[in-house]
Amino acid sequence: xxxxxxxxxxxxxxxxxxxxxxxxxxxxxxxxxxxxxxxxxxxxxxxxxxxxxxxxxxxxxxx
Amino acid sequence: xxxxxxxxxxxxxxxxxxxxxxxxxxxxxxxxxxxxxxxxxxxxxxxxxxxxxxxxxxxxxxxxxxxxxxxxxxxxxxxxxxxxxxxxxxxxxxxxxxxxxxxxxxxxxxxxxxxxxxxxxxxxxxxxxxxxxxxxxxxxxxxxxxxxxxxxxxxxxxxxxxxxxxxxxxxxxxxxxxxxxxxxxxxxxxxxxxxxxxxxxxxxxxxxxxxxxxxxxxxxxxxxxxxxxxxxxxxxxxxxxxxxxxxxxxxxxxxxxxxxxxxxxxxxxxxxxxxxxxxxxxxxxxxxxxxxxxxxxxxxxxxxxxxxxxxxxxxxxxxxxxxxxxxxxxxxxxxxxxxxxxxxxxxxxxxxxxxxxxxxxxxxxxxxxxxxxxxxxxxxxxxxxxxxxxxxxxxxxxxxxxxxxxxxxxxxxxxxxxxxxxxxxxxxxxxxxxxxxxxxxxxxxxxxxxxxxxxxxxxxxxxxxxxxxxxxxxxxxxxxxxxxxxxxxxxxxxxxxxxxxxxxxxxxxxxxxxxxxxxxxxxxxxxxxxxxxxxxxxxxxxxxxxxxxxxxxxxxxxxxxxx
Lengths: 63, 563
Description:
Chain A is mainly α. In chain A, 73% of the residues lie in helices and 0% in strands.
């Protein structure tokens, strides 16, 4: 779908930790809100509604 | 027996006049009417005034004896003012109303979005004008009363409409009992709770949203400009939205969403209203400022429309045809466009200048407009009153981000009512040069206004029939075009010719506009002499040519009036 650059494993590991800690920091009441804000910021940086749609579909798989 | 109240409605700023009911016993046998309009609100009266402009008489039935209770529709768009100008009440509206063009959205005490509606030097009217609906109805009613082709019957409540062969019958209840009125056409402009629509069993398509809003009008002195104020998720009403608008006569509209689970009855209790209005005033820094209640009501957001407005000899218009959310001022402002459209379409069918396909076109165009509004308004509604957990999360995320991130702020802007463009109307001329223009109003669009001189604008001079704008530097219209104009008029179609160019007399033109600096040509995308626009009686463009010839003018007029 997107043959362009992907995160190297070190970067992915950093994101993994950062996201986990941020969810904990937001707390159970605000975790969802935090994740939606994050998704909107990412979508804006992505600047491609179509790619975002693919990500939405991919994330909905295997829940 | 229908007994409308004869007590003037309460109001702290509007002196209600109680009109006398029209009683059948005081009049002779009722002839069959050409058009009966059920409802004397904005949609009904503008339909009557437009019909009259085209020479068609109507009887307008008003169930009550007074204008509407409370301010109701208070924000009128520029296009509405242009339509009201056509029926002769724009001047009074302008004198009485408060013009504005800025809207502000607040979250956590911070202004997170400011809407600035453009106001072009070529526009006579402001983007928005605030005025209470009673005044608008009064002005429209005065215009109806002064028109010999319109008969308004107060205290006449239409209780049933039956379709007959080629006409319809209205059963009308009055303070002395019922009578029957026959009419070639019946227009239901009786509003969102139309009993006539309910009785037909016609289903509306679209959605109804959960959640109620209170509208309250209070008299208060607030040192704030005439701008729309919207407050999201305030501390005193968490998760919900509050709107404020200035109205004339020292009145402010306060509009707030109810907490989930609260009933309209609970919300309208005086102590509940007082506590919430006090909390809102405190939040904007005006705690303790004395205020007085005028009127309050409750509404919910709905986006519903009939799929066809024409059913036999019964035609639905305004809120009787569709229910639209008020976010984006889409109630009366849509009704004016419906009524302006219906007025000429119906008049030309009544006069035999076009066949029933013209009415089918009216329905197709205005249902299309309603569907477009529903799509746009749905976005506003989902932001203002999120229908699901997902929508609420997204709305809350946007509120939160908006404090520091510019990119989400335009989501606060609920698109306000705008004129629908009939881009794919069957009335548009297939053989013109529409696609070759790079500027100017295209097929189906309303015209662009032009400032001609101080207090003198193009739209002051258009309407009431078809308008041909012909751009020329010559002193005479080509004879072949003049011949088509004469033939068109000879069969009863009103067609006015306006020459745009040197401003001096042009043989064959009814009026001439000077365009010394080429501004008019620029606004209409015209490069050379001989170009032209044909406007329908509702002023929307149905044909435009880089070089007009008689044959194509004739074809365009035929396309606009299908037999």
